[in-house]
Design a protein that fits this description.
The structure holds 6 protein chains of 6 kinds.
Chain A (H helix, E strand, L loop, with lengths): L1 H19 L3 H28 L3 E3 L6 H22 L3 H23 L7 E3 L1 H31 L7 H20 L3 H19 L5 H31 L7 H6 L2 H18 L7 H5 L5 H10 L1 H16 L3 H22 L4 H22 L2 H32 L10 H4 L1 H15 L4 H15 L4 H28 L14 H37 L8 H27 L1 E2 L14 E3 L5 E3 L13 H28 L1
Antiparallel strand pairs in A: 1-2, 4-5
Helix pairs in contact in A: 1-2, 1-6, 2-5, 3-4, 3-7, 4-8, 5-6, 5-12, 5-16, 5-21, 6-7, 7-8, 8-10, 10-13, 10-23, 12-16, 13-15, 13-16, 14-15, 14-20, 14-23, 15-16, 15-20, 16-18, 16-19, 16-21, 18-20, 18-21, 19-20
Chain B lengths: L2 H30 L9 H11 L3 E2 L3 H21 L4 H21 L3 H32 L4 H4 L6 H4 L1 H14 L27 H24 L5 H20 L6 H25 L1
Helix pairs in contact in B: 1-3, 1-9, 1-10, 2-9, 3-4, 3-9, 4-5, 5-8, 5-11, 8-11, 9-10
Chain F lengths: L3 E6 L11 E7 L2 E8 L19 H6 L6 H16 L5 H29 L3 H22 L8 E2 L2 E2 L5 H27 L1 H7 L7 H6 L4 H5 L30 H25 L14 E10 L2 E10 L6 E5 L1 H13 L6 H8 L4 H5 L1
Antiparallel strand pairs in F: 1-2, 2-3, 4-5, 6-7, 7-8
Helix pairs in contact in F: 2-3, 3-4, 3-9, 3-11, 4-5, 5-9
The chains are: A mainly alpha, B mainly alpha, C alpha/beta, D alpha+beta, E alpha/beta, F alpha+beta.
The structure holds iron/sulfur cluster (8 copies).
Chain lengths: 637, 282, 148, 124, 129, 359
């Protein structure tokens, strides 16, 4: 399977190229062709995974393990260097600890050399690679137009675009590495690359806030990351060195794998921004929007849930799994609640990302086949819909110069197309015929039967969470379509590349919704079959019929629009009898002319950001400590 | 019964049943207030009247969203009576309400806007309990299909007393009855004028009224599920619950949204969640 | 009989009356008179209303308000002026701030005399208004069909 | 409250089913103003004291005019009439689509017969 | 029943603030401010109450010189002052909540301060065009 | 960016029976600013005094407001009588007191109903108004008008009540008392009413005095300010005790009014017991000259009728300082920081009477 090597190395090559290219049009060509090639290759990988069983592949190079180790040392060295420079001594300390642990691991691994294939690919890898390749590629192309405008608007910020695009592609490369690695030492190496890249991308604006938040991201990911070498030590000290292979470890069953899997899952929790680690993701919003889209929809955070999903079969019915699921559940609930109190569009997206990841983590944590089925669907739908949302918000931001949802009032008249796409994205996040809701439905099905009574606990959490989710999404939709004074339609300033990417993503959202049964039959179910041997029919046929009826209804609806708009006569708004002197202006008390101003509710007396995050960080820390305790006790036994 | 036949029957019969129930509700309310009240068919007259009026709107798009609302409420009911997956019924129901809310938002009028926000608060308040109802019924029936639930030979309510209680509590929200008629109410004297429906008139308002009637029937259908295949008992229960709702409507003032949502969530947690949690342990 | 006559919804506005007539309008809704018997509801919202029940002689700043409410009501609609003030300005006819009767601002279809107008008179007035409402609906239908 | 509600339910509605049942009136109810024109001397005192300016009196034409939709039925004129020919009756004026002015012409002074005319002048 | 005579104390405009302060410090409640025309001039009367006994202060006024507002002492006076300003056209200075002539909007400016408007309306005006 | 919602509240608003306007600025549903705007009922009727005979003007003064119609008329007459130095028949003063108390009860019941309605308590509204009809029946039976009584004259009243009528009233009183007890219990004890009124619209004792509140508003904040204590008219002979509560919230003001219903019944019984025989109207000759501030207690609080005359048949100035106007500053104070849902409750709690406020 040279394709795997290609997917890892090709983006690396592009990254190298981009880092040196200064000319903008050349960069453009390289980025577009690189993205297209990566996208095609990833789809080919997907196609392969449909047709074949898991493939294993050993890299035909000797002593490549040493190279990986050297790479690890270089990354750590760089981090130590920048953290010392920025006086972030905690970061330095953790990196040093990590390095020491890693040396020990390497020593053990060398003395006890395992013969396992370094790379492998199965249906899950196929799905992930398609997400990374296609959506990641699209985001990179989108970034071309976006970053030009970004620098035009912020002349004070250093323009290091060659490096920027280099890192973006490096990131893709590392993501492919993570999903194709079978050797966990490799996986860790790519893991650390993503951590480093995210740090670099977040601090891109180079403001004090960006730097601070970049270090926060680095710190949290390193804390999580430090758990992985410990897991390696456990593996290498307790058993056969073959278990350093991902596939081998998962197949070994909970008896041997539970403790390392638990430790690696903690790293996954940090990476996927679960409470108590969530604040790095919110802070990362200072970065340019394509970065947010890349980190929070299809890559970075997905690496976290990917690794947990990989180990999900190990967690089935185990206490550690339940605790992980609870962390996911609490995160889902708390992050959704906080999203209500936010008016910054990117923050809403950030919190809803955290919430959705929480749901995925919860599904993985229960570890049943149904749970995993829901988790994978969630990963797919979330990646598409969220990147669509991030990118369209980025576009809007450049047009109206605000990220505030309140400023998007009546956007439907100003930018009807973009608004339509935001609406599709939002609908995709919570409305009935769209994917996220199918997944939510599936996860309810999954939880209700699993590990009583904890499954029911998760069901209750979802029940509350879905009401909350509906609130903040619906009010945003409402804001977009609430028309005070019709504005001049003006979409011409939007770069073509941005627009076309948005079109592709919205089309994808709809296509995937239509196509989800196909995805389920050809990808998810076969994969689950290999993991769980027996798989029940997860979505019965009648439900698919229903889904289609609903989709049909939604599609047919726009046609009735024309008929209804014509017949009505326009009348002014009801203002208790006070006439509108001009549109939206009335004469109020003291003879003052007032403009009608409407804003959404933020309910911050109930859904107070500080209070909720303080409480849930507390719960999160408690649960993590509990997990680690169980591991220590379990390890000691 | 053939699911398509059942759905068709619902679409045709629900307005009849709904109008009668609403009409009787209005008479009973009037009698409780020491008045005579309107004729039984008054809701029907109202809807027909609204369809006769000339259409006015702030923006034409309003009607579109309300049309979607009506369609999805009807769809929800059809799905329900066809015996579909109850979770999907609930999601379609939510979808319908989101359309209502969007319709209210469109006009950018202060009262409709606040009504829409309150409508969303109500949605948020009842959503957990409705999902818990579905889960509780699943625990009893081992199936999410309404079609299976109505064939339950026993009385699910015996296992789900808390869930039933919680459901009745949030039914007040769904029927837009005092003390939880936050977003819009049947009579005019409220701080929001007509809340979310302020900017609708004529045909559009007629569609809303019709949708409310369908909604009522669906909500009463949920009560049925608590009594399995015992038709007689469920009919009695529906009557008793309706009378109880009307009584509560007449014995309370409207509460603030904070009290509404916290009390609904509290009841959901204690009665609803407690009940299904206990069931899962057993 | 059309449905319009079975379900007349009213909106009430006090265009500078002395309250006497307003409380009688409100009294119509209460148990003793209970106009809901005729399907009459007080909507409080011009966009839902068919009948505009207006009291008082319309003062300077109310002119705009009254017009605004009237315009927001969808056709067919009728105006019932309740009380002597609304009919002609009554004792306040000569006050500097009173325009003198609702008819000076919007067309009135039925006048209900009385100071204060009795609930029974108000009911009679609304019943009369229903006939006019029906005529207007038919007129409206024919003009619409004529133009179409 | 539940008690009150149930009591209402049991006691039945308090509604007077007007117009199927007659309206409440008392002997002193002020309904509308009438004039006995035969006794009127067209002195104009009623006009002068009417707070609503509802009356017009013309001695030469021998007419007594009442703007019915302007009269607030206060009874002020009644107390000033030197001939006690004004009185207030209990029944209410019916609503109408146009303002009503009642013009009553008195009998010619010399004959003093029963020739009384009532002209209702409607205009909008 | 015959009530006791009411005493009205007439003071100068410059004394007003001081006197009102005295009332305020003695725990009086502001009951009202009224205005009436006195020939060509106007008079303002401030009424206070303590233990159910009314006390009145009266100052002369005209439409040119502004009267100092007492709303810094009795906030509630803003309603009366705005009303008098609108109806009589007597200017006040420093009203805490100044409606600037929009408190009571009238068809004619200062109806009580402009003598000619008494005859503005004819008796036999046709109401129903 | 401010998260504000601007709501024009009124003039046409179903919770407001009368037009008044508030510019509400909300954050979520919390009121951050509420500026009232009035003038929607300003007719300018005080100016009519320059055109009408001072005796005929009674009928206009009664139409200042259709709710406290009777007391307005009586207070105007009282002011003119004081200016003219008239000693009116004692029986007339007693009759005025009886009718005043009936007016007060009808007004309070009306208010209790509207107040219930402002909280969305429709049934309670209906019940209050059902009881109120009984009061209106008495008023119509004895005066000829349901809401505008028209029996006040300068120099007395134009109608008398006979002994049969008094007996009838006395037999009706126990029934009314039972009705009042029932209603008061609901307002006092109903849980939902309590959540909507307790602690809402706080007006401290000091603020109430400082802002010049009157009537039930100031009595709900712990001051015994009631013009009836001055003993005008027949009140000096009746056993009157003001109803005072100290909580200063909407609930307290509501209960003050409910309590006054009982006080009124007591006063009526009292007056019927003590009413002297005699004339009800004395002939009035001549024209008044002088000025007078007449102070009486209306349902909404103390009202001041100021009358100034210069010996002609037209008065120079008639001015009414109505209770609602005095209660506007406290209202603005109470509205700050409340919830949108509380706005109608708080607005109604001063029992706004825009008709007389703006005249
Ligand atoms: S919208 Fe504002 S923050 Fe965003 S790029 Fe433009 S100027 Fe910068
Ligand atoms: S801490 Fe205060 S400001 Fe911050 S979210 Fe909570 S309530 Fe709002
Ligand atoms: S007609 Fe009479 S009762 Fe009616 S508003 Fe006018 S003055 Fe008042
Ligand atoms: S009853 Fe009154 S209003 Fe009518 S005419 Fe006589 S004085 Fe004038
Ligand atoms: S006061 Fe009597 S007699 Fe004189 S004009 Fe009038 S009705 Fe005739
Ligand atoms: S007796 Fe009577 S009618 Fe004759 S002049 Fe005197 S007031 Fe006039
Ligand atoms: S206070 Fe109110 S009710 Fe009383 S007389 Fe004045 S306006 Fe009428
Ligand atoms: S306060 Fe209201 S009810 Fe009372 S007199 Fe004034 S306008 Fe009338």
């Amino acid at each position: 399977m040279e394709l795997l090597i290609f997917l890892i190395l090709f983006p690396l090559l592009i990254a190298g190229l981009l880092a040196v290219i200064q000319a903008e049009h050349v960069r453009r060509a390289v980025v577009i062709s690189g993205a297209v090639l990566v996208g095609i290759a990833s789809l080919v990988a997907l196609a392969f995974s449909v047709t074949s069983q898991a493939v294993f592949y050993s890299v035909p190079v000797n002593n490549i393990g040493i190279l990986v180790f050297i790479g690890d040392i270089l990354i750590s060295g760089y981090i130590i260097f920048v953290s010392l420079k920025a006086r972030q001594y905690v970061v330095t300390g953790i990196t040093v600890i990590q390095l020491i642990l890693l040396c020990a691991v390497e020593y053990l691994a060398l003395t006890n050399h395992a013969h396992i294939p370094e790379l492998f690919s199965d249906q899950l890898s196929g799905i992930m690679s398609a997400i990374i390749g296609v959506i990641g590629g699209l985001i990179c192309v989108y970034a071309l137009g976006y970053m030009r405008e970004y620098h035009a608007e912020h002349p004070d910020r250093p323009d290091t675009r060659p490096r920027f695009f280099g890192i973006m592609f490096l990131f893709l490369s590392a993501m492919f590495g993570i999903i194709f690695s079978n050797n966990l030492l490799w996986l860790f190496f790519f893991w650390e690359i993503t951590t480093l890249c995210s740090y670099l991308l977040i601090r891109y604006p180079n403001t004090d806030e960006a730097i601070k938040n970049a270090f926060r991201a680095l710190l949290f990911n390193l804390i999580g990351g430090a758990c992985i070498p410990i897991a390696f030590l456990v593996i290498l000290l307790t058993g056969e060195s073959e278990l350093i292979g991902l596939h081998e470890l998962v197949s070994a069953g909970p008896g041997l794998a539970l403790i390392p899997a638990g430790l690696i899952a903690v790293a996954g929790l940090a990476k996927s921004a679960q409470f108590p680690f969530s604040s790095w993701l919110v802070g990362a919003m200072v970065a340019p929007t394509p970065v947010s889209a890349l980190l929070h929809s299809s890559t970075m955070v997905k690496a976290g849930v990917y690794i947990i999903a990989r180990f999900a079969p190990v967690f089935e019915g185990e206490l550690i799994g339940i605790l992980i699921a609870l962390i996911g559940g609490i995160t889902f609930l708390a992050a959704s609640a906080i999203a209500i109190s936010q008016s910054n569009a990117k923050k809403v997206l950030a919190y809803s990302t955290i919430a959705n990841l929480g749901l995925i983590v919860a599904c993985c944590g229960v570890g049943t086949a149904e749970g995993l089925w829901a988790a994978i669907l969630l990963i797919i739908f979330h990646a598409i819909a969220k990147s669509l949302l991030f990118l369209s918000v980025g576009t809007v931001e450049h047009q109206i110069h605000s990220r505030n949802i309140e400023d998007m009032s009546g956007l439907v008249t100003k930018m009807p197309r973009i608004t339509m796409m935001i609406l599709i994205g939002i609908a995709g996040m919570f409305l009935a015929p769209f994917g996220m809701l199918i997944s939510k439905w599936a996860s309810l099905h999954a939880f209700v039967e699993s590990v009583p009574p904890f499954g029911i606990l998760l069901v209750i959490i979802i029940a509350y969470g879905s009401g909350i989710t509906a609130f903040f999404w619906a009010k945003w939709m409402g804001k977009l379509i609430a028309v005070g004074e019709p504005q001049q339609k003006d979409e011409s300033h939007i770069p073509g590349s941005e627009k076309s990417i948005l079109y592709i993503l919205s089309a994808l959202t709809i296509v995937v919704c239509f196509g989800f049964p196909v995805i389920s039959w050809y990808l998810i179910e076969p994969w689950l079959l290999t993991m769980y041997q027996s798989v029940t029919e997860l979505i019965s046929l009648s439900n698919i019929e229903i889904m289609f009826m609903m989709l049909f209804l939604v599609l047919i609806m726009p046609f009735s629009l024309a008929r209804f708009t014509r017949s009505a006569t326009r009348v002014p708004r009801y203002l208790c009898g006070i006439p509108e002197s001009e549109t939206m202006v009335f004469t109020g008390s003291c003879g003052i002319k007032r403009e009608i101003e409407l804003s959404n509710y933020y309910l911050d007396t109930i859904f107070c950001e500080k209070r909720i995050s303080r409480i849930s960080v507390g719960i999160g820390i408690f649960l993590i400590v509990l997990i680690l305790n169980i591991i220590i006790v379990g390890g000691g036994l | 019964m053939n699911p398509f036949l059942a759905a068709a029957l619902f679409i045709i019969l629900a307005p009849v049943v709904g109008v009668l129930i609403t009409g009787l509700d209005r008479i009973l309310t009037a009698r409780m207030q020491g008045r005579v009240g309107p004729p039984v068919l008054q809701p029907w007259y109202d809807i027909r009247k609204l369809f006769q009026k000339k259409q006015v709107a702030v923006w034409g798009a309003q009607s579109f969203f309300i049309f979607c609302y009506l369609i999805f409420i009807i769809f929800t009911g059809a799905l329900f009576f066809a015996g579909g997956d109850i979770l999907l019924v609930i999601f379609a129901f939510t979808l319908g309400h989101v359309f209502l809310v969007l319709g209210a938002y469109v006009s950018y009028s202060p009262y409709a806007h606040i009504g829409a926000e309150r409508e969303l608060i109500q949605l948020m308040a009842v959503e957990p309990m409705i999902i818990i109802v579905a889960i509780g019924l699943y625990q009893v029936n081992d199936s999410f299909l309404v079609g299976d639930m109505i064939n339950h030979p026993g009385l699910p309510i015996l296992l789900l007393p808390g869930v039933f209680l919680g459901f009745i509590y949030i039914l007040t929200f769904k029927l837009r009855k005092s003390p939880f008629d936050l977003a819009t109410s049947h009579h005019a004297h409220q701080e929001l004028v007509k809340g979310s429906t302020t900017e609708f008139s004529g045909f559009t308002l007629g569609m809303i009224e019709l949708a409310h009637i369908y909604e009522l029937v669906v909500m009463l259908g949920f009560i049925w599920l608590f009594f399995g295949n015992n038709l007689f008992l469920s009919a009695v229960a529906i009557v008793v619950i309706m009378v109880l709702e009307i009584l509560v409507d007449n014995c309370t003032s409207r509460v603030r949204w904070q009290d509404a949502i916290t009390s609904a969530w509290f009841v959901t947690l204690v009665a609803g969640a407690g009940n299904i949690f206990a069931l899962s342990i057993m | 009989m059309s449905y319009l006559q079975k379900s007349p919804w009213i909106i009430h506005y006090d265009a500078s009356s002395c309250n006497g007539c307003d409380i009688e309008v409100l009294a119509c809704l209460t148990p003793l008179y209970d106009v809901e018997r005729f399907g009459i509801l007080n909507t409080g919202n011009p966009k839902h209303a068919d009948i505009f029940v207006i009291t008082g002689g319309v003062n300077e700043i109310n002119r705009e308000v009254v017009k605004n409410i009237y315009e927001q009501m969808p056709h067919p609609k009728v105006v019932v002026a309740v009380g002597i003030c609304a009919c002609s300005g009554g004792v306040f006819k000569e006050c500097y701030n009173i325009s003198g009767g609702v008819a000076t601002v919007i067309p009135v279809d039925v006048y209900v005399p009385g100071c204060a107008a009795r609930p029974e008179s108000i009911i009679d007035g609304i019943v009369q208004a229903l006939k006019i409402l029906e005529q207007k609906r038919i007129a409206l239908k024919t003009t619409v069909e004529g133009t179409a | 409250m539940a008690l009150t509600v149930l009591k209402n339910l049991v006691k039945g509605p308090a509604t007077i089913r007007y117009p199927y049942q007659p309206a409440k009136v008392t002997p002193v109810t002020r309904g509308h103003l009438v004039v006995n024109i035969n006794n009127c001397i067209f002195c104009g005192l009623c006009r002068a004291h009417c707070p609503a300016d509802a009356i017009e009196v013309s001695k030469p034409d021998r007419t007594w005019k009442l703007h019915q939709f302007q009269c607030v039925i206060c009874g002020c004129c009644v107390s000033y009439c030197p001939k006690d020919c004004l009185s207030i009756e209990q029944t209410y004026l019916p609503p109408s689509p146009a303002a009503t002015i009642v013009t009553v012409t008195g009998p010619d002074e010399p004959e003093k017969n029963e020739g009384q005319e009532e002209g209702i002048n409607k205009k909008l | 029943m015959k009530q006791p005579e009411q005493k009205i104390e007439t003071i100068t405009v410059s004394d007003l603030i001081h006197q009102v302060h005295v009332y305020h410090d003695d725990g009086y409640r502001l009951v009202q401010i009224s205005c009436a025309q006195e020939g060509d001039a106007f008079e303002l009367t401030y009424t206070f109450d303590r233990d159910l006994i009314l006390s009145h202060l009266r100052i002369p006024a005209d439409q040119k010189t502004s009267i100092p507002s007492i709303s810094r002492i009795y906030l509630a006076s803003f309603v009366y002052e705005n009303e008098i300003a609108d109806l009589f056209g007597i200017p006040f200075s420093g009203i805490a909540v100044d409606y600037k002539g929009t408190f009571i909007r009238t068809s004619v400016p200062h109806p009580f301060g402009t003598p000619q408007i008494t005859t503005l309306k004819k008796k036999q005006e046709d109401q129903h065009e | 960016m401010s998260k504000q919602i601007i709501v024009p509240f009124g003039p046409q608003h179903p919770v407001l029976p009368e037009p008044i306007h508030l510019d509400l600025v909300l954050e979520d549903e919390r009121v951050v600013e509420a500026i009232p705007s009035i003038g929607y009922v300003h007719r300018g009727l005080e100016k009519l005094v320059e055109k009408r005979d001072y005796k005929d003007y009674v009928f206009i003064s009664e139409r200042i407001c259709g709710i406290c119609s009777f007391i307005h008329g009586a207070t105007y007459c009282q002011a003119v009588e004081q200016v003219m130095g008239l000693e009116i028949p004692r029986r007339a003063e007693f009759l005025r007191a009886i009718w005043s108390e009936y007016s007060r009860m009808h007004s309070h019941l009306l208010w209790l109903g509207c107040f219930a309605d402002a909280m969305g308590y429709e049934n309670l509204f209906m019940n209050c108004w059902k009881v109120r009809e009984k009061i209106l029946d008495v008023l119509e039976r004895t005066t000829g008008g349901r809401v505008i009584q028209g029996v006040n004259r300068v120099g007395g009243v134009s109608r008398d009540m006979d002994a049969a009528e008094f007996r009838r009233i006395e037999t009706e009183i126990p029934g009314l008392r039972a009705d009042y007890t029932e209603l008061t219990r609901i307002f006092d004890e109903d849980l939902t009413v309590q959540t909507r009124t307790k602690g809402v619209g706080m007006l401290s004792k000091d603020m109430a005095w400082e802002l010049g509140a009157v009537g039930p508003v100031i009595r709900g904040s712990g001051h015994a300010v009631d013009a009836r204590m001055t003993g005008y008219g027949a009140y000096d002979e009746l056993d009157f005790k003001p109803v005072v509560r100290t909580e200063g919230d909407c609930h307290a003001r509501c209960l003050v009014r409910a309590g006054e219903l009982f006080t009124s019944l007591d006063l009526i019984e009292n007056a019927i017991d003590r009413i002297p025989k005699g004339d009800i109207l004395i002939p009035v000759k001549g024209n008044p000259s002088g000025e007078y501030y007449a102070q009486t207690e209306q349902p909404r609080g103390e009202v001041i009728h100021y009358v100034k005359a210069n010996g002609k048949k037209n008065l120079v100035r008639h001015r009414v300082r109505t209770p609602t106007l005095a209660n506007v500053p406290p209202l603005v104070h109470m509205l700050a920081g409340c919830e949108l849902a509380d706005v109608p409750v708080i607005v109604l709690t001063i029992d706004p009477c825009i008709g007389c406020m703006e005249r």
